[in-house]
Amino acid sequence: MQCSWKAVILLALASIAIQYTAIRTLTSKPFQLCNGGCDDYPYFSLNSSRKTHILVLATTRSGSSFVGQLLNQHQDVFYLFEPLYHVQNTLIPRLSHNSKTMNRRVMLGASRDLLRSLYGCDLYFLESYIKPTPTNHTTDKLFRRGASRALCQQPVCDAFGPSDVNVDEGDCVKKCAALNMTLATEACHEKRHVALKIVRVPEIGDLRALVEDPRLNIKVIQLVRDPRGILSSRIETFRDTYRLWRIWRATGRRPYNLDLSQLTIVCDDFLSSVSTGLSHPYWLKGKYMLVRYEDLAKNPLLKTKEIYDYLGLPMDKNVEDWIHANTRGSNEPSAKHKFGTVRDSAANAESWRLKLSYDMVEHTQMVCHKVLQQLGYKAVKSAEELKNMSISVVQDKTFVPFL
């Protein structure tokens, strides 16, 4: 009997300890109580000091590097370029070739877990996917490390001082020592906001669990671009992968074994994702903004101000200076780098019209007509109309953030 009473007392003490831990966990995170409809009472309006977790959702060759740099230039933002690159490189070789559905679930699950950890400035979690595995939390294999200002500045890198505001990505990689993940984590904690740019999550719906996580303050910027422009850019950039498209463009004859899914997947994902975002589901309230690359390229300063207004952040002078320096064209080698951001943005937005043949454009318009119409991209009816650059194929269309 005496033993049983001791057991009861021990269980009671254990229960109290567990409850205390749970209460501490909950109260260590700011939260709000609301009656009936939190949807009409955005969290971020109550706590302006809370860290903002910015997510640029895009696809390859849609202008996402440019948008990422608009955020990277802000002095209070910790930015990472494509952290999911490491997830894909690690998991794809191990996944089954027989189950695309299962592979997608595994990739998305791992991606969401990593994003959640990075928003909490837990960069150690990323080490599980970097190959070779970092030694003593140090690596020189972080993908595009130099694209992040915070990773090229003190205390992470001693090669540059406070006056070195715009460090070239190549110089950062050459002059900075191997990346110390502990220092990178500290740098992340010192910043007020975290921004991540991803192109490896197909649709906004795949991120719902992340968006609804009460520990996060997610703000999604979904970047879209005319699929015809994306196709043209991919043909120029990924020469091996899009080799058959290059043959089609050069000969005027479509190869019989051309992988058309390289185009249709883009349009299907855009259509599904944008339809979800523009339908204004409750879980995206205050957390979603759709941006067309063409609008940003035409009026970079104005559109960037709109983005920062949506994020609730002041746009500091360094962002404006970077825009002026990087949207007026350049003959520098960096302007021709496949992931570069120095360019004449307005001219670049519709330059695909001078690179694609009319039959390729016509085919794209046929398979992507729904999303072209949805996003306000006009179809061309002839080769002459295609090459007539005096007439834009981008309709004036306003996409208001879902606030």
Structural notes for this entry:
The longest helix is centred in the first third of the chain and has 26 residues, at 2-27. The protein has helices spanning 2-27, 64-72, 84-91, 100-119, 169-175, 181-190, 208-211, 227-237, 243-251, 261-278, 293-298, 300-311, 317-326, 345-349, 358-367, 369-375, 383-387, and strands at residues 52-57, 77-81, 138-139, 179-180, 193-198, 218-224, 288-292. Helices cover 44% and strands 8% of the residues. The protein has a five-stranded parallel beta sheet, sandwiched between helices. Strands 3-4 form a two-stranded antiparallel sheet. It has a domain at 47-226 and 276-345: Rossmann fold (3-Layer(aba) Sandwich). It has 403 residues and is of the alpha/beta class. It contains 17 helices and seven strands. Its EC number is 2.8.2.-. Residues 1-22 form the signal peptide. Pfam families: Sulfotransfer_1.
What Rg, in angstroms, do the CA atoms define?
24 Å
- At CATH level 3, the topology of one domain is Rossmann fold
Described by strand count, sense and barrel closure, the largest sheet is: 5 strands, parallel
Helix content: 40-55%
* Element-by-element helix/strand order: HEHEHHEHEHEHEHHHEHHHHHHH
N- to C-terminal distance: 62 Å
Give the overall shape: globular
Strands, total number:
7
Mean pLDDT: 85
CATH class of one domain: Alpha Beta
Strand content: 5-15%
Helix segment tally = 17
Low-pLDDT parts are 8-48, 329-339
What is the spatial order of strands in the main beta sheet?
2-5-1-6-7
Structural class: alpha/beta
CATH architecture of one domain: 3-Layer(aba) Sandwich
GO biological process, one term: sulfur compound metabolic process
Membrane topology: Single-pass type II membrane protein
Protein name: Sulfotransferase
Organism: Cynoglossus semilaevis
